[in-house]
Structures are given as structure tokens and as C-alpha cells.
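User: Teach me something about this protein's shape.
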Amino acid sequence: VQLQASGGGLVQAGGSLRLSCAASGSIFSINAMAWYRQAPGKLRELVAAISSGGTTIYGDSVKGRFTISRDNAKNTVYLQMNSLEPEDTAVYYCAAWIVTKAQAKDYWGQGTQVTVSS
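Assistant: First, the predicted structure itself:
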């Protein structure tokens, strides 16, 4: 099983970016999917998560600006980021709790850099 994240880049403050993360491999089912981020010198933090049924939660710093969604048919989770701020600069990681024939565990993508200039 692999998670492949894409969509990061450099954007000016106030701009928008959309991250995508696709899961592939021998997947039986996917439970929750999430985005985390880690800025230099800081701990990794939860940005947003979404259950298999579509229930969402957000970190306080991104509420009202970011939207998480998923396409279950494509095993893909998205993060729409609007009104970006320099404080959003970080490496963004996707994660998913995946059930395969052998086990159920969390998997992580490789990370994608988001840089917001002031």
C-alpha cells in the first residue's frame, strides 16, 4: 500500500492551493483519512481528518479556511486551502487508516512542501 501526495508549492499570502493524496495497492477498505503538517522546529500537528462516512474535524488554526474531502471510489483525499497565511508554511503529510487482507494500520504519504510568502 502506498500513499502519493501532490499539489504543494509556493503561493502568496491570501492565495489557494489544493493538495491531493491517492492510496494504491491491495486495499480492502479505508477508514479515516487525514492531513498533518510539520513546520521547521515544530511538532507535527493535525490539520484535518475525515471519516469514511464524511464526518470532518479541523485544527483550530485552519477552521473556516481549509476544507477536507475524499473520493472513496478513487481512494483519494483532498485538502482545499484558501486564504493561506505564512504560518501555514510546512510539509504536509497525508495519512490513512487502511484495511488490507493481512492487517489494519495507518499509512503515511511522503510529504509535500507548502510555502506561503508574505
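Now, about its shape. The chain has a mean pLDDT of 97. The radius of gyration is 14 Å. If you'd like, I can walk through any region in more detail.
User: That's plenty for now, thanks!
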